[in-house]
Design goal:
Layout: E1 2-5, H1 16-29, E2 39-42, H2 53-62, E3 68-71, H3 77-87, E4 90-93, H4 94-105, H5 109-123, E5 137-138, E6 148-149, H6 150-184, E7 190-195, H7 201-209, E8 226-231, E9 237-242, H8 252-257, H9 259-266, E10 270-276, H10 282-296, E11 303-308, E12 327-328, H11 337-347, E13 353-361, H12 365-374, E14 376-382, E15 386-394, H13 398-401, H14 410-414
Parallel strand pairs: 1-2, 3-4, 7-9, 7-10, 10-11, 11-12
Antiparallel strand pairs: 5-6, 8-9, 13-15, 14-15
Helix pairs in contact: 1-4, 4-5, 5-6
């Protein structure tokens, strides 16, 4: 069920029907079988039921035989109670559905903690007025004080659990900070894949790194961040991070709860903003991604716009006027991946390359292997006692190579 309000309407280009189609996809991803849809357009929400009495009767007839009705809107606890009473079925908001999907897909302990925190923070203000079962008086040693209501007990327990979860997540954040400081002791840039859910980020991640993370057409198939090394054409190595997909009206509680995970985005040197080039609502999705990045404080981070799924297009799409020129790729077929790697190499500011001439004796042969791993060999000549090289190497390696640098010209090395 979607309700579009004409008074105070936002400037979103996504209308109620398109938004409802996305909601149906979310519901199917959560395991529901969608048996009907309805849209209402009205000037403002009804204070008691959001939709008004006439639409409520129509919805009751349409939903007969269904045990769950999902609204594409948020509403108050009182409106939810009135709706459930009138429709004789469970009623959920879009936010509750997203939280349920996150709970289903969280695999790591960290992900489960983050989802539970977001669920409890959403539930806490909605405990009021949920029936007589929440208002029983009682007492007991170590449980409730005399005369304390069940509602107050539930609130106290939820507050206690929220504190426990936040402490656990702070420990996770401290561990991440320690791991990050260890990584940053070696100057490796981090590139974060970000974008709307189901834009193909995990498939692109697998294509670039050879990893085998779950890539699924389901929304939010990726919740837990994954880091892998990526070798660029210059020989430089960077870390690539796959992150949770964003979505329109992503619940603020989720952004807050997943802040420890999304720190990989905030600390990234470069963002690959991935869009589904074949999606009719691509522009709207890109606007939502930018809104979440701004909320995270990453609005000014350098980025490369990547339009994925070009294999599904009959002809190349037109870029937005005045916007950055996007790179067209297909993570499924591999088309455009080399252009993307070259663009990454050109855009990354961390650990630039410098051309050097080196004479490395055979006992220090491990350095030659390191140069092949981390640099780009332009010329190489093996003599009896040493190896003469021209190479483009990251500046972070120059201190280790200082004793082996030579001032010979490139032609002298190449002609040996």
């Amino acid at each position: 069920m979607g309700v579009e309000f004409t008074t105070g309407r936002s400037h979103s280009t996504l209308n109620a029907d398109d938004s409802l189609a996305e909601l149906a996809e979310l519901a199917a991803g959560a395991g529901a079988q969608v048996c009907g849809r309805a849209v209402q357009r009205r000037p403002r929400p009804d204070a008691a039921t959001l939709v008004g009495s006439g639409k409520l009767e129509e919805l009751a007839a349409l939903s007969r035989g269904c045990d769950l009705i999902i609204f594409d809107n948020d509403f108050s606890p009182t409106q939810q109670r009135n709706l459930e009473r009138a429709l004789d079925a469970r009623v959920l908001t879009r936010t509750q559905l997203i939280l349920d999907i996150f709970a289903r897909h969280a695999r790591t302990r960290e992900g489960q903690l983050q989802v539970e925190l977001a669920q409890l923070e959403y539930l806490l203000p909605r405990l009021t007025g949920r029936g007589q079962a929440m208002s029983r008086l009682g007492g007991g040693i170590g449980t409730r004080g005399p005369g304390e209501t069940q509602l107050e007990t539930d609130r106290r327990r939820i507050h206690s659990r929220i504190r426990t979860l936040k402490q656990a997540l702070e420990r996770v954040r401290a561990q991440r900070a320690q791991q990050r400081s260890q990584r940053e002791s070696v100057p490796l840039a981090t590139v974060a894949l970000v974008g709307y859910t189901n834009a193909g980020k995990s498939t692109l991640f697998n294509r670039l790194t050879g990893a085998n993370v779950v890539a699924s057409a389901r929304m939010f198939a990726t919740l837990d961040p994954t880091l892998r090394g990526l070798r660029l054409p210059s020989g430089r190595k960077v870390l690539l991070s796959d992150t949770v997909g964003f979505i329109r009206n992503l619940p603020h509680g989720l952004v807050s709860a997943f802040r420890a995970t999304l720190e990989e985005v905030t600390r990234a040197s470069l963002l690959l903003v991935v869009s589904d080039a074949a999606a009719p609502e691509r522009v709207e999705q890109e606007q939502q991604v930018e809104a979440v990045l701004a909320e995270l404080g990453s609005g000014a981070t350098p980025r490369i716009a990547v339009w994925n799924k070009m294999d599904l297009l009959a002809e190349p799409p037109t870029a937005s006027p005045g916007g950055p020129s996007p790179l067209l790729v297909s993570a499924r077929t591999g088309e455009g991946i080399e252009r993307l790697l070259q663009r990454l190499d050109a855009e990354l500011p961390v650990d630039p390359l410098e051309e050097v001439h080196l004479r490395i004796p055979h006992p220090a042969g491990k350095l030659v292997h390191l140069l092949h791993e981390r640099g780009q060999i332009l010329a190489e000549h093996h003599a009896d006692a040493q190896v003469d090289l021209i190479a483009r190497v990251p500046v972070s390696l120059l201190p280790r190579l200082a004793a082996f640098r030579t001032h010979e010209t490139g032609s002298n090395v190449e002609n040996r």
